[in-house]
Amino acid sequence: MKSKRLIIIILFIFSAGLSFGQSYSISTQLDSSKYLIGDYLKFQLLITVPNNASFIFPQVTETQLGLLEFIEKSSIDTIHEKTQTKFRQTITVTIFDTGQYKFPSLQLLSTDSIILAQSDSILFTITTLPVDTTLAIKDIKPMANVPITFKELLPYILIGIGIIAFIVLFLWFYTKYGKKRHSRPTRVSSKPKEKAHIIAFKKLEKLRLRKLWQEGQVKLYYSELTDIVRRYYKDRWNIDAMEMTSAEILEQSENIGIKEDLLNKLHFLFTTADLVKFAKSEPLPNDHDTSFKNAHIFISETAEADNNSN
Length: 310
Known about the structure:
This protein is α+β, with helices and mostly antiparallel strands. Among the domains are: 20-127, Immunoglobulins (Immunoglobulin-like, Sandwich); 196-301, no CATH class. Helix content is 45%, strand content 18%. The chain contains eight helices and ten strands. It has helices spanning 2-23, 62-65, 150-181, 196-210, 218-237, 246-255, 260-279, 285-301; strands at residues 25-29, 34-36, 41-50, 69-73, 77-80, 84-94, 99-103, 107-109, 115-118, 122-127. Strands 1, 3, 4, 5 and 6 form a five-stranded antiparallel β-sheet that branches. A hairpin with a 3-residue loop joins strand 5 and strand 6 (84-94). It is flat and about 125 Å long.
């Protein structure tokens, strides 16, 4: 009977110790095992502890890093779960020599300096770019610059003076005798520049007829559609929207007094376009039509008034 109790107690202590050990964990991760000289190596530190547990957050010192050069460390992200809490931090280092290196093992300590968990060290290799021996050998030092003397510059100075004198003499003769022959100014008829909304509407119609998104060229469709709207900003308000982000364009639109309903239409257009271009999103066909209509309505509602009277 006593032996059975002893076995039960031993099993209880073992399971409790095992669960305690599993409650605390620390690990470091690296995306690759090979890097070039001078690359930034971003180590992901992950710590898991029971909720409300007290521990000492590990600090990476220069002594631990050895030849590795510390760059920065990110703020600590905290993730709360039912029974445990996770902490994440990115530690960035670099090195300027080739070879195999090791990111040190880190210990998770209690407030009483008891080791709760320990991470594995990470091996990685630093290489350099391969040298192409087929290329020509270049000089180590550039060619030395020899100062130019005044004697060498004198011919060019005289030529410059002669050209200036010729231009001045030509202008004097033209001013004195040329005006008599051309006393009557010639009128040059210039075609008035089209207004911004007219240009934009023509481009929208050309884009519609090309049927880009119908043929699967969705990214090109949104790129040209947003470029039309960005160019309209330049022609209409002299806002260089071609060099702005979507958020900056919306902010500028508020500053020039664009109505809220039009801002919402612009927001839908630029958000959909950004998702397609940068997140490889696949909008629905209705979204393509809505984006086109939003661009057309925005240009129509903000078009410059026609002051010509019949």
